[in-house]
Amino acid sequence: MIFDGKQLANKILDSIKKETNSWPQKPNLAVISFGDEKNNSSYIVQKRKTAESLGFGFNDYNYSKDDFSKAREYLNKIVKMESVSAVVVQMPLPAEINNSILNVILPEKDPDLLCDRSVGAFFNGHSLINPPTAEAILDVFKEENISLLGKKVALFGYGRLVGRFLVPMLIKEGATVAVIDKDTPKEDAKHISLCSDIIISAVGEANLIKSDMVKDGSVVIDAGFSILDGNIVGDVDLESVKDKISLITPVPGGVGPITVARLFSNVAKLFKYSTKFKN
Amino acid sequence: MIFDGKQLANKILDSIKKETNSWPQKPNLAVISFGDEKNNSSYIVQKRKTAESLGFGFNDYNYSKDDFSKAREYLNKIVKMESVSAVVVQMPLPAEINNSILNVILPEKDPDLLCDRSVGAFFNGHSLINPPTAEAILDVFKEENISLLGKKVALFGYGRLVGRFLVPMLIKEGATVAVIDKDTPKEDAKHISLCSDIIISAVGEANLIKSDMVKDGSVVIDAGFSILDGNIVGDVDLESVKDKISLITPVPGGVGPITVARLFSNVAKLFKYSTKFKN
């Protein structure tokens, strides 16, 4: 079965709309990118469209990557705006912009969990929200009534936005998690993968997961993203695995749209718990 | 080989002493416990002795667990004291004291990485210090010239103070890490453990790791701690595994003393980078 991520995304967006419709004020998302805007334009357009469909405020800002202190100053100004309820900085940052800039974001305006305090609250187990992509992946299991209790998960990739957040979330659901990263020997990756009930890949390397690495009946979540011959592709060679697996999320149309929906459910949640909403 | 943790701890303490001897001012550690002090007294005594041997300042405080807001107020007062350069709260906290109290600690005075900002800085990859127990475990590998690159590690336990911190540290060193936690079926734990080059256990369950779970020649790090028949014991049945393994850290006398040494190297590092030292 090829999982329809757009359908689940629409379901989540509908429930956000239903909840927020009656709110006297709506959340307002600011998206900031540094350097060449073209690198991020498709993501930004997608967020704008979603914000508009929900009736949320939306603004995007693009700044030069060549003056770090200016970049920091601009970000700080946006974060402090009363009208802005949530701030997203497009990742990855260009090499000229140090990650420390993300600490300018306030945790109560941080739907992507980028700043230290948000990340710390998450790992200390008392964050109000989960990171959008990791949450989107758990959504797929919930939607399909797939329990993680006692299951073996092979997690490919331990990156900033997905892998590292997934480890505690999967363990909390009762899974046994093996993390395969760039230094894992190919034969170990294959062995672990073949022993696993569930494969989650968030690397960004086309055709990383092939048929000979996948156990019959396994569940495969493809959270990878790269460009191959001008096309957006995931980490999994879908054609070669699709007859072996019980469920796979495709790229595009799988985890991606659900992640956008989850970003906006975080934006709504943060707004709801902000002082502003209570007044 | 049974690894001598005390010897490595003394080596680390000697190097701290050597560095800090010439400092015009010395760091000052405050240790705070809530509830019955007896639960923590052996740890506190150990820290006091070590502080004295280094010429560092040391104070311990014990407060009632029955008034959370008072407990918070006391902790806040100690953290803000100019004379106090580092604060440790004895974990685990009694059930009456919510973990959120740890956010009163300032990151620049947090050698155990307890508050959100310290934990976030660690997971965001820009912490000045590593958590003492996790650092102590890596120390053992370094001391014995054991490379983690391409090695398979079975990590038993994903707790607040050890397991969760070890995952990124081990991956950074090039290891492939499988996390075994309380929901892992026994047979899976055994299979993963037998396939691993290195076993690290930080659960607190006597005799969790037995001979039939250990591959010949493997390295076993026992970071567990519990009381069995009045004795301090680790997670590993040392007698049953000692003829199979190439190296094991015993309990007591293994990771424990190195952890105390690493706590004090963190205290020294934080003091060194504080404004106070620079003046």
Structural commentary:
The structure is a homodimer of 279-residue chains. Chain A folds into 2 domains: 84 residues, Leucine Dehydrogenase, chain A, domain 1 (Rossmann fold); 124 residues, NAD(P)-binding Rossmann-like Domain (Rossmann fold). The first copy, chain A, has 10 helices and 10 strands. In chain A, the strands form 3 sheets. A 5-stranded parallel sheet of chain A has the order 5-4-6-7-10, sandwiched between helices. In chain A, strands 2-1-3 form a 3-stranded parallel sheet, sandwiched between helices. In chain A, strands 8-9 form a two-stranded antiparallel ribbon. In chain A, helix 5 packs across helix 9. The mean pLDDT of chain A is 96. Chains A and B meet through helix 4, helix 6, strand 5 and helix 7 of A and helix 4, helix 6, strand 5 and helix 7 of B.
The fourth-level CATH homologous superfamily of the largest domain in chain A is NAD(P)-binding Rossmann-like Domain
Summed over residues and divided by their number, the pLDDT of chain A gives a mean of 96
User: From the structure provided, what is the oligomeric state, counting identical versus distinct chains?
Assistant: homodimer
The largest β sheet of chain A comes out as:
5 strands, parallel
Distance between the termini of chain A: 47 Å
Largest interface: A-B, 39 and 39 residues
